[in-house]
Amino acid sequence: MASAKAPLVAVTGASGFVGSHIVNELLQRGYRVRAALRDPNNEEKVGHLKAMALAPTCRGSLELVSGDLLAPGSYDAAFAGADAVIHTAAVVEIMSVSDPQKEIVDPAVLGTQNVLNSIDKVGTVKTLVYTSTILAVQSFNQDEGHTFNEADWNDWSTIENGDPYGFAKTQAEKLLQSHAQGKPYSVRVINPGVILGPVFCKAHTKASTVLVRELLFRNPMANYLSSFVDVRDVAKAHVEALERPGAAGKRFLVVSDSPCMCTTDLGPIAEAGCPEYVTQATPKYSSFVFSCLGALSRLPLLGPLVMSEFQRRACQTQVNFSNSLAKEVLGLQFRPLEETVRDSARSMVEGGYVKAKLKQSAP
Ligand SMILES: NC(=O)c1ccc[n+]([C@@H]2O[C@H](COP(=O)([O-])OP(=O)(O)OC[C@H]3O[C@@H](n4cnc5c(N)ncnc54)[C@H](OP(=O)(O)O)[C@@H]3O)[C@@H](O)[C@H]2O)c1
């Protein structure tokens, strides 16, 4: 049980894959946690959070409250009296949606404005940690070979070129950085790569970990190049950023030490880490089909219907990031990707969320 004097931290998107790991990290460190989500009565979304609060390793306490990004004022109660806010809630979707402005950009930008307004209203918050992404940092208009760092901003993505998510997260982070100027709280921003690692519930297998699920199902997977990171390291990054005064005003690229790779390169990593399961990385497009689609996508009018410019570039561009600031200021050591993929797969199977095909054991 947390001491009554323990700092109170409100977490938005607390039921999500990242939010849940942040709640767990805070509870283990003895914080009073107010977990905000849209429906605190939905047992499928909160069962695992309640279990964390009952675990023997929990030194903190948990309160479940409601909050909706698109309802102005809806975080006022969640943030009342809070010492800190960790804002993770967003719609995470890099594939196409029917109305990107409404479905992706508005929850990120209007939602962040609503969160900031509630923080201003309650007046007790001293620290705000925001979950951004590497997609608010990387741009496809940089020279090849450029290593992105915290000084870079994504000024390439737009709704029209097919990256509403990168556009939305960049706009939301810029809004937050400028709104926070001169406020009585300090801001710290975490920019993670594609996040994998252990899941707490079935819904988490549909987050970015869907890549590992597809390996276990041996389904075709979206092929794109990216940098990956373990969700436990991402959660730790948020809480270290919250606790360390040296993190104030900074953004941190949080990616593992593994180089940028294609999603299908996760196949051999899963095979080595989980030799007991049959896994297979099947790209959604073979290289022949991909080059045909790439050529068609350059045609006027028809092109964007075949493949967006973002999709084409994301499959072809090697993008490198430096994680040295996160190591230096937040004291992070990143887990090897082999461990991340293995624990992701095992948590899905052992939790009963994915039925893996077991390899025949030798007679
Ligand atoms: N996963 C990645 O690879 C990755 C990489 C970099 C950055 N990020 C960032 O990490 C954060 C969390 O992502 P995640 O992977 O944990 O995704 P997730 O599992 O889909 O969680 C997203 C959370 O956002 C909440 N949310 C969505 N729409 C909302 C709304 N209108 N009002 C209130 N809450 C809403 C959902 O809450 P409900 O339970 O109420 O539906 C959900 O808990 C996001 O900010 C994302 O941009 C993720």
From TrEMBL:
Single Gene Ontology MF annotation: oxidoreductase activity, acting on the CH-OH group of donors, NAD or NADP as acceptor
Protein name as it appears in the record: NAD-dependent epimerase/dehydratase domain-containing protein
Domain NAD-dependent epimerase/dehydratase: 9-249
Pfam families reported for this sequence: Epimerase
Coiled-coil blocks: none
InterPro entries: Epimerase_deHydtase, NAD(P)-bd_dom_sf, NAD(P)_dehydrat-like
Key words, A-Z: Oxidoreductase
Organism encoding this protein: Polarella glacialis
Similarity section: Belongs to the NAD(P)-dependent epimerase/dehydratase family. Dihydroflavonol-4-reductase subfamily.
